[in-house]
């Protein structure tokens, strides 16, 4: 949120207005039809607004005055006058419909268009790009930034129509009487200037309030998240005092912002009234001199009362421009982001387990030190290799390289002897399955999560995979079995259940290389044993690379690769390493008994 | 984290189950904030003054036209100028009053709402842990943010504009009646039916905006899924599927937005129509009255009055246009108040004995559970039954059992996060419910599993319970727990920022800080919920060392997930199905074949072999 709001403070320098106008120009090019409807409606509304003042003025002056003076009702002229007022009003309604529906359609279509473009870009850009950008910023780009980039579009056609209206009004006043026109020339620009001054004054105040609103939420969030610690430490009062500080800051900021607005609103209400009074006074002088008629005077007086509101639309557009430009810049930043992971066209013929080779692989994130240095080893087809190493030794990076989520800085990763960069995206996805450490569950049914609408993954495959992942029992107990929706991020499932569903997802595609990145950590050890035993006994023809902590898991592997500081420090069977590599023995025994099931926050008996 | 069942217990409320009606909620909501009433009459007087300014202009136009410009015997320019000047003065006064009114209003509402926010926040912390579960936290945050914002929007804009606009309509009506009652009736005849269809329109609008809110939620979730799930989407080559879902969510949001726009456009069109119709009626009716029927009705109608009338009718349109918005915001505010009241109405289940507090004896504490049972609210079986156990001062007890066996419930009763539904818990002979909160929290400290850290520094987190501790004292505490080298290895020592929820530190390091936090509190009864996550060997060694130092000389109850902890304890309590099924030292328990403990032990061994 903070990112989107910061645009406020950009202020009103010429560059922003210029870039804002360019943004509006681009919006018109993207959405010419809806803009045309909105602008035409707005112009019609504008002309009819000026016309309504003149028609009422004319009917009062030319029909009402003689009629009242003569004491006689001129039925025909009166009917005509009434029809004219009503007719203008109907045309005004048509204008309103065109203006607001056009503007709405334009704004929402632009938002949808850019939202699609941004999210499509997210899907196209490589993982290395994602890793460089914080999740919060990416969400904000697609949500808030797109929203604010097209915020000024809502009043934009109105503003265009208002410019027309002002020109029409000044011309109409000039035609009526040049002295009255001077009053208009004085009042309308004043309205506009006050708008601009208000926007400049209030924007930073509103931004400050907005920022504090975020802070109030952040403190509340943190404090409620840590409620157990707060309570057990008896620090409730201290926390409330901490909250009171930001809450009162927000109060003060809101009052400051409200104060400016509190002056602006009545001023904007009063100005047209001052115009009307000026017309009355100046007009009476002109009338006495015989330069003006009563209908003209009444029309001019009305003109001021109907024009004040539309003039504010220009202020709205200008007020939103700095934020819009800031939002659009960030959106364009995503759209212009370079990179994409080029895939080759090669397929991997045949079926069954494939060999995985790391050949002098080096990898580093951005400018940081290398995470992996000169890593070479092979997982022979059909074998199971366990990756063991301390936190930060580069295990997860290796699994990502194997699934080609990232590419090595140097060296090659090969599947069945082919450089993974030569393989087509489809070949890669159907060959390798990576089950990550933190299970990711889509807002879909269990079945949908397992199958992911992949070709070649049918209902039977999904069911078999759920069985193999030891998930069939709890899935059967769900209200709609495998067709049960699991909620956002699988909220209705426990951690262990989520892991088993993602594991089934990995198994369902019958991968020729299965990579488990500590993918069973939340699963009960006995269940984990059953899963791994199942993998070996059901004749699944798969090569397995498994990142493991538990001794029992490691012991199931044919070979262990021990990583330390981004290098392969040793390899061999678990027994060999335990006996010959002190660092390995120390690491594995430290984990001893470190695992067990945990109690949840609130537990339920039975 | 392998609890397979999640149950959200219903909050215990003293308020009646049926929700309060709108008016009751409104009244109670306003009563929550007495600050709102302070200076209210002055604010309303200012509101009236600002309204009179608006009506002054049409009257000035009428006076200027009838008695100035069209005065019998030629235009009276002096009169027009006087009227104009006088009205400008009135306008300036009106602007001044409106400004003062707005300022007073912002001041009193913001003050009142900040007070309400702080009170609600404090009350959330006073409620029991049952109210503060994960699933409810987002909602609790909304109570002190968006719900209160909704109330403030209503009070500052709609609530007052409702009063001001109502005043404007009334004053305009009075002036119109003075000019001509038949025309006034005609104007009202146009607006009354409009006012009658408003609630229906407003309901339509509300439905439309609800759809917008729902779909924006779906859209944000879809976008988040595509960003957070990026590695999975790539690994399984399912970008096309994700793009399709995103596109659907984007389109559905767009169409909802457009639908809402349509509903509000109808509103504008209707009020424009009403205003056009009124103008027509006033002009035509005015001419008929002024020229034809004046004598029959006993009232003349001048050109100035006719013109003023058109202006006055214009004062009707704006309030009517605002009306739907006001209704919507009023409903939102009532809903906000209702949710805030729900929180404030919930009585804290666990209360400080206050005056009736009995002091605890000094030194390590003894614990006694006397036939304790506990059932979570909302019915259902007891999570803990017939627990009768005594723990001698200074002993180390390990609590073991499968998920759902009742060991966490046991710990929560021991720390008085909840009160038992049956039986009593005593500390050195004093019933827990009679121990004052201040003393309880000082003497009994719990280290939760996740060792929650606040977004501040290592030092401030360690000193959370004792903010008065100096850096030197904190450094000494780290050293006493054998953590001097770890602290020295941090980039800025005690001043190292830990990040949001301590994310700059590893899970094990967060536990270290949590242990220091407990250590400086110097409790006489320590309850530890052992972490289950794997940590790297160096941290593991440090954790063990720190644990030994923290527990030395205190009564310690550890919810054990590690074999070594149970083995080292003086006594092990084995929980199964909410009951203590075995107790005694490790060697004794493990010898009982086919017992719960033996099974747990076998499973541990199997994992670690």
UniProtKB/TrEMBL annotation, chain A:
<feature type="domain" description="ABC transporter">
    <location>
        <begin position="356"/>
        <end position="590"/>
    </location>
</feature>
<dbReference type="Pfam" id="PF00664">
    <property type="entry name" value="ABC_membrane"/>
</dbReference>
<dbReference type="InterPro" id="IPR017871">
    <property type="entry name" value="ABC_transporter-like_CS"/>
</dbReference>
<keyword id="KW-1003">Cell membrane</keyword>
<keyword id="KW-0812">Transmembrane</keyword>
<dbReference type="InterPro" id="IPR027417">
    <property type="entry name" value="P-loop_NTPase"/>
</dbReference>
<feature type="domain" description="ABC transmembrane type-1">
    <location>
        <begin position="36"/>
        <end position="323"/>
    </location>
</feature>
<dbReference type="GO" id="GO:0140359">
    <property type="term" value="F:ABC-type transporter activity"/>
</dbReference>
<comment type="similarity">
    <text>Belongs to the ABC transporter superfamily. Lipid exporter (TC 3.A.1.106) family.</text>
</comment>
<dbReference type="GO" id="GO:0016887">
    <property type="term" value="F:ATP hydrolysis activity"/>
</dbReference>
<dbReference type="InterPro" id="IPR003593">
    <property type="entry name" value="AAA+_ATPase"/>
</dbReference>
<feature type="transmembrane region" description="Helical">
    <location>
        <begin position="149"/>
        <end position="172"/>
    </location>
</feature>
<feature type="transmembrane region" description="Helical">
    <location>
        <begin position="178"/>
        <end position="198"/>
    </location>
</feature>
<dbReference type="GO" id="GO:0005886">
    <property type="term" value="C:plasma membrane"/>
</dbReference>
<dbReference type="InterPro" id="IPR003439">
    <property type="entry name" value="ABC_transporter-like_ATP-bd"/>
</dbReference>
<keyword id="KW-0547">Nucleotide-binding</keyword>
<protein>
    <submittedName>
        <fullName>Multidrug ABC transporter ATP-binding protein</fullName>
    </submittedName>
</protein>
<dbReference type="Pfam" id="PF00005">
    <property type="entry name" value="ABC_tran"/>
</dbReference>
<feature type="transmembrane region" description="Helical">
    <location>
        <begin position="33"/>
        <end position="56"/>
    </location>
</feature>
<dbReference type="GO" id="GO:0034040">
    <property type="term" value="F:ATPase-coupled lipid transmembrane transporter activity"/>
</dbReference>
<feature type="transmembrane region" description="Helical">
    <location>
        <begin position="295"/>
        <end position="318"/>
    </location>
</feature>
<keyword id="KW-0067">ATP-binding</keyword>
Automatic annotation (TrEMBL), chain B:
<feature type="transmembrane region" description="Helical">
    <location>
        <begin position="77"/>
        <end position="100"/>
    </location>
</feature>
<dbReference type="InterPro" id="IPR039421">
    <property type="entry name" value="Type_1_exporter"/>
</dbReference>
<feature type="domain" description="ABC transmembrane type-1">
    <location>
        <begin position="44"/>
        <end position="332"/>
    </location>
</feature>
<keyword id="KW-0812">Transmembrane</keyword>
<dbReference type="GO" id="GO:0005524">
    <property type="term" value="F:ATP binding"/>
</dbReference>
<dbReference type="Pfam" id="PF00005">
    <property type="entry name" value="ABC_tran"/>
</dbReference>
<dbReference type="GO" id="GO:0016887">
    <property type="term" value="F:ATP hydrolysis activity"/>
</dbReference>
<feature type="domain" description="ABC transporter">
    <location>
        <begin position="367"/>
        <end position="602"/>
    </location>
</feature>
<dbReference type="GO" id="GO:0005886">
    <property type="term" value="C:plasma membrane"/>
</dbReference>
<keyword id="KW-0813">Transport</keyword>
<keyword id="KW-0472">Membrane</keyword>
<dbReference type="InterPro" id="IPR003439">
    <property type="entry name" value="ABC_transporter-like_ATP-bd"/>
</dbReference>
<dbReference type="InterPro" id="IPR011527">
    <property type="entry name" value="ABC1_TM_dom"/>
</dbReference>
<dbReference type="InterPro" id="IPR003593">
    <property type="entry name" value="AAA+_ATPase"/>
</dbReference>
<feature type="transmembrane region" description="Helical">
    <location>
        <begin position="181"/>
        <end position="198"/>
    </location>
</feature>
<dbReference type="InterPro" id="IPR036640">
    <property type="entry name" value="ABC1_TM_sf"/>
</dbReference>
<keyword id="KW-1003">Cell membrane</keyword>
<dbReference type="InterPro" id="IPR017871">
    <property type="entry name" value="ABC_transporter-like_CS"/>
</dbReference>
<dbReference type="Pfam" id="PF00664">
    <property type="entry name" value="ABC_membrane"/>
</dbReference>
<keyword id="KW-0547">Nucleotide-binding</keyword>
<protein>
    <submittedName>
        <fullName>Multidrug ABC transporter ATP-binding protein</fullName>
    </submittedName>
</protein>
<keyword id="KW-0067">ATP-binding</keyword>
């Amino acid at each position: 949120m903070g990112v989107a709001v910061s645009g406020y403070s950009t202020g009103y320098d010429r560059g922003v207005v210029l870039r804002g106008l360019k943004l509006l120009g681009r919006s018109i090019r993207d959405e010419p039809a809806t803009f045309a409807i909105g602008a035409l409606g707005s112009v019609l509304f504008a002309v009819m607004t000026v016309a309504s003042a003149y028609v009422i003025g004319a009917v009062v002056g030319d029909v009402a005055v003689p009629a009242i003076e003569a004491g006689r009702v001129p039925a025909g002229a009166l009917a005509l006058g009434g029809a004219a007022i009503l007719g203008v009003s109907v045309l005004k309604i048509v204008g309103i419909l065109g203006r607001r529906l056009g503007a709405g359609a334009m704004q929402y279509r632009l938002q949808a268009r850019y939202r699609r473009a941004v999210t499509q870009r997210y899907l196209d850009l490589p993982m290395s790009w994602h890793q460089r950008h914080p999740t919060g910023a990416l969400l904000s780009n697609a949500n808030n930034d797109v929203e604010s980039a097209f915020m000024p579009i809502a009043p934009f056609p109105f503003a265009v129509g208002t410019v027309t209206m002002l020109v029409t009004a000044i011309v109409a006043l000039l035609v009526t009487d040049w002295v009255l026109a001077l009053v208009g020339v004085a009042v309308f620009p004043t309205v506009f200037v006050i708008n601009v001054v208000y926007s400049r004054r209030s924007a930073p105040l509103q931004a400050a309030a907005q920022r504090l609103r975020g802070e109030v939420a952040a403190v509340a969030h943190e404090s409620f998240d840590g409620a157990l610690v707060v309570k057990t430490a008896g620090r409730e009062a201290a926390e409330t005092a901490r909250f009171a500080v930001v809450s009162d800051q927000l109060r003060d900021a809101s009052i400051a912002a409200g104060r400016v607005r509190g002056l602006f609103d009545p001023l904007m209400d009063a100005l047209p009234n001052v115009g009307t009074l000026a017309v009355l006074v100046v007009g009476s002088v002109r009338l006495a001199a015989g330069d003006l008629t009563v209908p003209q005077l009444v029309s001019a007086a009305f003109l001021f009362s109907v024009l004040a509101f539309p003039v504010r639309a220009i202020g709205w557009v200008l007020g939103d421009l700095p934020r819009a430009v800031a939002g659009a810049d960030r959106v364009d930043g995503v759209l212009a982001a370079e990179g994409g992971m080029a895939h080759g066209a090669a397929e991997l013929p045949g079926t069954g387990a494939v060999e995985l080779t790391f050949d002098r692989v080096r990898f580093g994130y951005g400018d940081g030190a290398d995470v992996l240095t000169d890593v070479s080893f092979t997982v022979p087809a059909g074998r199971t290799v366990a990756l063991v190493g301390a936190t930060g030794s580069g295990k997860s990076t290796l699994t990502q390289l194997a699934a080609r989520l990232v590419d090595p800085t140097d060296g090659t990763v090969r599947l069945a002897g082919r450089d993974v960069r030569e393989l087509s995206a489809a070949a890669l996805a159907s060959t390798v399955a990576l089950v990550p450490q933190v299970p990711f569950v889509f807002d879909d049914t269990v079945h949908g999560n397992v199958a992911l609408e992949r070709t070649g993954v049918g209902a039977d495959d999904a069911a078999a995979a759920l069985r193999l992942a030891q998930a069939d029992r709890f899935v059967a107990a769900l209200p709609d079995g495998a067709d049960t929706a699991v909620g956002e991020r699988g909220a209705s499932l426990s951690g262990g259940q989520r892991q088993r569903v993602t594991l089934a997802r990995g198994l369902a595609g019958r991968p020729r290389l299965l990579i488990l990145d500590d993918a069973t950590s939340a699963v009960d050890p006995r269940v984990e044993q059953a899963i791994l035993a199942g993998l070996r006994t059901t004749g699944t023809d798969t090569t397995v690379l498994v990142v493991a902590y538990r001794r029992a898991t490691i012991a199931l592997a044919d070979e262990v690769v021990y990583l330390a500081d981004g290098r392969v420090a040793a390899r061999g069977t678990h027994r060999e390493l335990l006996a010959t590599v002190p660092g390995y023995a120390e690491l594995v025994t430290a984990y001893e008994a470190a695992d067990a099931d945990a109690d949840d926050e609130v537990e339920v008996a039975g | 984290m392998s609890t397979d069942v999640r149950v959200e217990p219903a909050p215990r409320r003293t308020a009646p189950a049926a929700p309060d009606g709108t008016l009751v909620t409104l009244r109670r909501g306003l009563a929550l904030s007495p600050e709102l009433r302070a200076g209210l009459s002055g604010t309303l007087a200012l509101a009236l003054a600002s309204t009179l300014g608006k009506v002054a202009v049409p009257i000035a136009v009428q006076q200027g036209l009838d008695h100035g410009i069209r005065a019998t015997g030629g235009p009276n320019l002096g009169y027009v100028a006087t009227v104009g000047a006088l009205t400008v003065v009135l306008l300036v006064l009106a602007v001044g009053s409106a400004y003062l009114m707005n300022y007073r209003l912002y001041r009193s509402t913001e003050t009142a709402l900040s007070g309400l926010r702080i009170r609600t926040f404090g009350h959330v912390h006073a409620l029991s842990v049952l109210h503060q579960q994960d699933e409810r936290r987002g909602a609790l945050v909304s109570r002190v943010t968006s719900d209160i914002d909704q109330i403030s929007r209503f009070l500052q804009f709609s609530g007052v504009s409702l009063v001001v606009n109502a005043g404007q309509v009334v004053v305009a009506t009075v002036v119109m009646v003075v000019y001509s009652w038949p025309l006034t009736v005609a104007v009202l005849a146009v607006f009354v039916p409009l006012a009658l269809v408003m609630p229906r329109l407003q309901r339509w609008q509300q439905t439309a905006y609800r759809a917008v809110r729902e779909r924006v939620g779906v859209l944000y979730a879809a976008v988040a899924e595509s960003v957070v799930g990026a590695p999975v989407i790539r690994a399984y080559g399912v970008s096309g599927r994700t793009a399709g879902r995103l596109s659907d969510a984007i389109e559905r949001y767009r169409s909802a937005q457009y639908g809402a726009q349509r509903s509000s456009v109808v509103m504008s069109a209707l009020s424009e129509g009403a205003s056009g119709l009124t103008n027509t009626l006033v002009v035509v009716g005015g001419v008929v009255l002024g020229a034809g029927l004046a004598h029959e009705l006993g009232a003349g109608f001048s050109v100035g009055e006719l013109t003023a009338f058109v202006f006055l009718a214009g004062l009707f349109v704006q309030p009517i246009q605002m009306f739907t918005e006001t209704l919507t915001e009023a409903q939102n505010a009532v809903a906000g108040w209702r949710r805030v009241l729900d929180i404030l109405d919930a009585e804290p289940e666990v209360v400080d004995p206050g005056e009736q507090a009995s002091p605890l004896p000094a030194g390590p504490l003894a614990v006694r559970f006397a036939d304790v049972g506990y059932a979570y609210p909302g019915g259902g079986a007891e999570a803990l039954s017939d627990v009768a156990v005594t723990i001698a001062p200074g002993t180390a007890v390990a609590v073991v059992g499968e998920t759902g066996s009742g060991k966490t419930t046991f710990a929560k009763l021991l720390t008085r996060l909840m009160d038992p539904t049956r039986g009593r818990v005593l500390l050195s002979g004093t019933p827990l419910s009679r121990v004052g909160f201040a003393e309880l929290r000082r003497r009994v400290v719990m280290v939760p599993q996740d060792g929650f850290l606040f977004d501040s520094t290592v030092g401030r987190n360690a000193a959370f319970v004792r903010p008065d501790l100096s850096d030197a004292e904190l450094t000494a505490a780290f050293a006493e727990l054998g953590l001097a080298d770890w602290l020295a290895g941090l980039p800025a020592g005690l001043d190292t920022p830990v990040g949001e929820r301590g994310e700059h530190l590893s899970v094990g390091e967060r536990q270290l800080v949590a242990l220091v936090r407990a250590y400086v509190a110097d409790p006489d009864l320590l309850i530890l919920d052992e972490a289950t996550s794997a940590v790297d060997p160096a941290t593991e060694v440090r954790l063990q060392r720190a644990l030994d130092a923290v527990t030395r000389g205190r009564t310690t109850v550890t919810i054990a997930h590690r074999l070594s902890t149970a083995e080292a304890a003086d006594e092990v309590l084995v929980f199964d199905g909410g009951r203590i099924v075995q107790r005694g030292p490790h060697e004794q328990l493990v010898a009982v074949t086919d017992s719960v403990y033996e099974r747990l032990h076998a499973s541990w061994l199997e994992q670690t072999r």
